[in-house]
Every structure is written in C-alpha cells, then in structure tokens.
Amino acid sequence: MEKILFLAHTDTDGSVGKPVLEALTAALELAANLDGAELTVGLIGGEVQAAANAIAGCGAAAFLGVAGADFAVARYSSDAAAASALAQTAQATLVVAPGTSRFARALPGVCQRLGGRIDTQITGLQVVDGEPRIQRWYYRQRMAGTLTRSHRPWFLLAAPGAFSAWAGTPGTAEVQPVAVQVPESRTRVLGTQAALADAHTIRPDADLLFVAGAGWTKKQVDGQAHVSDAEKCILDFVEAAQASLGSSKSLVDQSGEGQQVLSFMSHLHQVGQTGTTPRHRKGLATCCHGEEPHVVGWRFITERRAINLDAGCGWAQGKADVLYVADAFEVLTKVNELLGKS
Ligand SMILES: Cc1cc2nc3c(=O)[nH]c(=O)nc-3n(C[C@H](O)[C@H](O)[C@H](O)COP(=O)(O)OP(=O)(O)OC[C@H]3O[C@@H](n4cnc5c(N)ncnc54)[C@H](O)[C@@H]3O)c2cc1C
C-alpha cells in the first residue's frame, strides 16, 4: 500500500501559493486512483497552521508540520532537514511536491539522504494497473515521456501550471508538529531583493505573448535607430495589455555585441530553440523576422500574428495566421493610443 506525502512550503506570509495548490490536486488524484493509498500533508514554514487550515478540506488522513523562524525562509540546509523529517515521519513511499525553486533546490538532496529517486517537471499523473505513471517532456518539449518506477521513496515535483489549483473548502486542521534539529549552517537569509513590480514583464499567465525582434533597434526609414521610442512603445503596450514580453535571440544578444539595447530585455525573455517555449493562447511578433529557430518556440501558441515591413518575412511562410505588413512603430503608437497610453 502506497503512503503518499503531499509536501509543501508556505509563502513568507504563511499562505499557500498557486503551485502548492496545483501540486495538491496532483497528490489527490494519485491518492484517489491508487487502491488503499493514504495521504498525509507535510508543511514547512515559519507558521503552518493557517496553511493547513486553508487546505483542511482536502481529505488528508493527517497533517504534519515543521514550523519556526528557521523554516520561514528558503535555505537548502533547513529545508532539506525539514523535508527529510516529514518524509520519514510519514513513512512516505511517494512524495508529491510543487516544483518551486525552493523545492527544486532542496528535494534532490532529501531524496539522496533517504535513498530515493526523484523526477521533476511532471506534467501529468496516471495510475495504470495499480501503478503510478508520470508524464514529463524531454528535449525542450519535443518528446513527451511516460514512466514509472518501482523504487521507493519516489519524489515527484509537479511542474507549475500543469495541474489545476485545488479549490476545496478550508477548515481547521489538527497539525502534528515534527521536531527538527536546525542544522549548523553558514547561510543566513538576510532578505529578498525582488525586481520592481513594473519590471516584471514575463507573465506566464497572460493571454497574450508580445514578442519584440531586433528590428526595433535597427535603422529605420529616416536612417536613424529609435531605441528610446521603441522602449516606450513596447513597455506601454505590454503594460496596457498585461501581455507577457518575449524576444528574439538577435535582440537579447545585442548587449554582448556592443549595439544599442532595450534596457529591460534579458536572455530570460528569449523565445525559441535555445530559449523558452511559452504557452500563451495568442502571440504577436513585432520587428521579428520569424526564422525557424525562433518560431519553433511558438509551438504551443495557437493564434499567431506578426507585424513586419517585409511581406516576404518568415511569418508569411505559413507561420502566422495574420501578417500585418506595416511599420511596427506606427502600429504600436496607434494601438497604445487606443489603449489609453499617450
Ligand atoms: C542554433 C541556433 C539556435 C537559435 N535559437 C534561437 C532562439 O531560441 N530564438 C530566436 O529568436 N532565434 C534563435 N536563433 C536565431 C534565429 O535564426 C534568428 O537569427 C533570429 O531569430 C533573428 O532575430 P530577429 O527576427 O529579431 O532579427 P532580424 O532577422 O534582424 O529581423 C528583424 C526584422 O525586423 C523587421 N523590421 C525592422 N524594422 C521594422 C519596423 N519598423 N516595423 C516592422 N518590422 C520591422 C525586418 O523586416 C526584419 O524582418 C538561433 C539560431 C541558431 C543557428
């Protein structure tokens, strides 16, 4: 009989985040489909009662908690000690956890300590003939794999965004505290430095992906480059439409080549073969040629449009549903006006 531990950490304010609720759905699906499986919740945080109450209605047989100031922050040594203790107390054979950066860092070490196996970036879970099977992508989402393991404990990190967030009723959970000796550590967490709110231009949940290509920084019809106009056009649009910002490789590589660059662009924005493969419903490419190594990153974007001066650009070769042959500066200035940006 499998013993499933749903392992989660709280956010710094003690609440549970969306990736945690998504992983909870995965754990519950597994528990429901595995005959006789028992589900235990294990929480790590500064204070875990509020988080336990928030998911009290999930039907877990027990709630375990490792709490205290040392566990409020993301740090490998304390997280690994807490997670190991929870997995041991629950005698877990399967551990389902959210694939947050905090757990992606700590859980492989926990798995090593407990002699287990771990799989990350899990996008689907099934039970076939009484055995759990996981799905994940390989080779930059070109191949989907299904696999199972007989080895236990088996740690499963659910990919954020792959499962629907659990939305059951809260209640009052009885949390059984698990004592953990805080390991000696040279790492002190002094605080968090987050980017300014308006600097967050990568928005995985946005409906629209807006891609900027190198054309924004190239000489225009007047023989001049207009980089600051380009910055304004792009940022105004992304903010007004709450779109997620993507880039071609040529544009993000320019900083290393000593050319004028868009100040808010980084390699994290790059879409394509050597970049990301985002999953927005719609995409709009601007000043981007639409070459194959770029467009391959659009394979999950269902509705595609592009604005390019060149009627023969890559987007016209069956890669976009609509190509506007137009000057992106003019189009975006007008669209931004319509969106209330002057
Ligand atoms: C192994 C390999 C991996 C690669 N991986 C990636 C990847 O992951 N992602 C990626 O993006 N690329 C990748 N590339 C590079 C890719 O092949 C292209 O070189 C790159 O995508 C081109 O970027 P771009 O379209 O922004 O620039 P350009 O090719 O310079 O195109 C600029 C476009 O802007 C248009 N334009 C200029 N001014 C305006 C205006 N005012 N209005 C409208 N349009 C205008 C021009 O007509 C032109 O089509 C890879 C290449 C290789 C060899």
What does this structure look like?
- The protein is of the alpha/beta class.
- Helices cover 25% and strands 24% of the residues.
- The chain has eight helices and 14 strands.
- The strands form two sheets. A nine-stranded mixed sheet has the order 7-6-5-8-4-1-2-3-9, sandwiched between helices. It has a five-stranded parallel sheet with strand order 11-10-12-13-14.
- A hairpin with a 2-residue loop joins strand 5 and strand 6 (131-138).
- It is elongated, with a radius of gyration of 24 Å.
- The structure holds flavin-adenine dinucleotide.
Question: How is the secondary structure organized here?
Answer:
Layout: E1 3-9, H1 18-33, E2 38-45, H2 49-54, E3 62-67, H3 76-89, E4 94-98, H4 101-113, E5 117-128, E6 131-138, E7 143-147, E8 154-158, E9 175-177, E10 208-212, H5 227-241, E11 244-247, H6 249-253, E12 282-286, H7 292-295, E13 303-308, E14 322-325, H8 328-338
Parallel strand pairs: 1-2, 1-4, 2-3, 3-9, 4-8, 5-8, 10-11, 10-12, 12-13, 13-14
Antiparallel strand pairs: 5-6, 6-7
Bound molecules: flavin-adenine dinucleotide.
